[in-house]
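Appendix B, record 7
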Amino acid sequence: MSDEPQPQQPNQGGEGPTEPPAAAEEEQAKPPTVAEGAETAPPAEGGSAKTAPPAVVEDNHTQQLTVVRGSRPKPPATAGETKPEPPAGAGATAGAAKTPTRAVVEDTHTQQLTAVTVPKARPRPAAEDRQTTQNTQGAQDPQTRQLAAIRVPKAKSPAEPPAAAGATTETKGGGKKMKQSKRTGWRRILPTWRMLLGTFFVGTLLLIGLFFVGYSMVKIPAANAFATKQSNVYLYADGSQLARDGEVNRENVTLAQVSVDAQHAVLAAEDRDFYTESAVDPKAMLRAAWNTATGKGTQSGSTITQQYVKNYYLAQEQTVTRKVKEVFVAIKLDRSESKDQILEGYLNTSYFGRNAYGIQAAAQAYYGMDAKDLDPARAAYLAALVNAPSEYDVVAHPENKAAAIARWNYVLDGMVKKGWLDASKRQGMTFPMPKEQTVSTGMSGQRGYIVNAVNDYLIKNKIVDSDSLEAGGYRITTTLEKDKQNAFVKAVNDKLISKLDKKNNKADNYVRAGGASVDPKTGRLVAMYGGIDYVKQYTNGATRGDFQVGSTFKPFVFASAVDNGSTTQSGQTITPNTYYDGTNGRSVQGWPGSSYAPDNEDQKSYGQITVRKATDLSVNSVYAQMAVDVGPSKVKQTAVGLGIPSDTKDLQPYPSIALGTATASVLDMAEAYATLANHGKHGTYTMIDKITKDGTQEIKLPESKTTQAVSRQAADTTTSILQSVVDNGTATAAQAAGRPAAGKTGTAEEDTAAWFAGYTPDLATVVSVMGQDPVTAAHKSLYKALGLPRINGGGAPTEIWAQYTKAALKGTAPFAFDLDLQAGAETQAPATQPATQPGTGGQDNGGTTGGDQNNGGTTGGDQNNGGTTGGANNGGTTDGSTTSGSTTSGTTTSGTTTPGTSSGTTTSGTDSGTTTGTTTDGTSTGTTTGTDTGTTTGTTAGDGGGFGFVQ
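Structure tokens (predicted):
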């Protein structure tokens, strides 16, 4: 049995009062109600108010609240209706306690509270009833009051139909409120306006938060490597472009170096409100997205600031991450840099097609002009290219010309609309067709040689380091003159390259050439020839230093002798008229080292021969002895002073130094000969006239220092004997230049190189033809090259020099050398004299008696004149002029000099003598009657040489 009290049943055991049958039936017909929530029925007229006892019975064992279902409120009692009262007296209290409740108690074994419903409020009772109710509520126990405070929804009866949509319910106060209708069907998946509004506010706050987080986290990065990569631009002295290196065709310029029309054109094409808008334009981005989505063309919607950020700081990938970073960096950049700075950066990083990055490169690629010279029409076309560089190139894609012109018109109309271009001027414009695209030749031809030589010069002189050059951005104006450069290339092609037959003559495949030309007065390199083509022959023939210079070194020995006042072993001052023993294989005298006896060319001997003539014929035995007389160390010192680098390979202080064992470069030799042409004043040669970085920063160049390398007399006297080489010696082909010239030929050992170094008063040029295996790079002899037995310095090198010099100096008046000669050098002694000289004492400089010099006693006919020398004189024919001094009246006919009378006198009496001269490989026998003491016999031979060094 349950411990809960059971309701009393009527008429059972007579215990307690019972409800009238009618009440019981009525009660059974009503649904159960929660006791504490039930209102007491209004009392019958004249009756006293009663309250029903609490209807909830607590289970003492389970201490849980059972579910109680309340009954609906009863309507007010009508007159005559009374409710049975419990018995009075002692049983009243007990009866009251035992009054059956109007609640149905569920099975207490469930031990769970399943539902609690509270009866709906009934109409507000009359005042007295409200008073009774308040009294009754005050009498309820605390547990009942707590339960009464709980308002829970009424549990629906299964039989109760669902409320209609929009039905009203009664409130506790007796009012009515609308019941919320249920969303059914597809409406259930739609958000309500409350949800939408909440989502909007939450999303807005979230976006604001994310923006501030992103703004604080994203920093302006360093520029990407590609954006900073530029090409170096190399210019001729006149400012025209010579070459451009680097993979990226870009040349940064300042905004001031871009025409205002070009600036406005780009703004009209890309961002007309650039100067007034913010860094990011959301409306433009949305508009671009809409236009792209609706098929009106792909658009970026980015401002110029955003595009610059993408080009300069970020990469080009199309990702959301990159786009977000672009926005934040653009905003920050707009706060840290001016609009002008951003526009300048944008113009230098935009791509215009034809491998042109930046507006300067584009102006050159399409119109061959600088950005500062762009007019509105051309500027508008370049601005149109930014939108579609490849498609709008009307030369490469003529089928797209209509679209390109439409874009061009769009830009111009935008300029008019913004007030940047006068409408009347706009009407008269025609489309400016760009030039044909020049196929990039890179470093082909002479460009590669020149670029490498310039870069080496910059690095060697510590003007720019290699890393900076690699980064690019330099605009280098060289000293090279375009007309002279072209003339040099043409001369080499005409006199050498065009004569090669590489298919049928193996030796012609070995031929290489190098050349350099320097202005003696300024030291500026005006032209350079590096080879047939840089992409075919990588090594620069003008700067390489691995071929012996041969006899072109001999003038340095003589210049050193004069500068140092050197004397022969017998104590005689060395002058152009000093006699030396030209015997082949003669051992040098006065050298403390091992014996050194060089051979002459073709092992020819010349006997006693003047320095002048020994220079004409390049006699090795004479110059080896002269080097010892001067001192090999002094000779080296003089060569270095003239311009030969001190670290030149094989530039050693030995007698062999005179024969050109050193391997100086063509450029080094040109510098040294320019010093001789400049009267011994050496100013370090230069290849650079001006250099700037990024268009504005001018790089300081080393100051040019001029030093007197050798005395003017030494330099000028050397020039005088080199003039004789051109006039009478091995370099007569140089006379084709049509100007006074001085020079010296030379040939390396085994004929691996042939040289000519020469100069006029205003231009010093050196040419070398070299032999090298194209596969192994080994040095090769030039025998049989050009179909000749051998190539000598007097051949192709001198011919190239002559044609180039004539073209380079075309239009300028020729003038003679202004020479300050060494004492005694004004006249020319006989070229040769007998080995023994009876009747003379201490004879020197030819024709002096008793040791006293008298240059007037020369013979009336020089025995070397009138005959063509044999040997390797390259066809050079000596003239028939007499030596300096008293001029004879004889003439030369077929190598025979007619008798003539000299007007010279001797200091120690007179002696009629006969002079007989014999020329080897020719006939020149002359008999003169003069006042020369003694008999001289002179013998001349072909080109000097020996030991592999000739001319």
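Remarks on this record: The mean pLDDT is 75. The chain has 25 helices and 27 strands.
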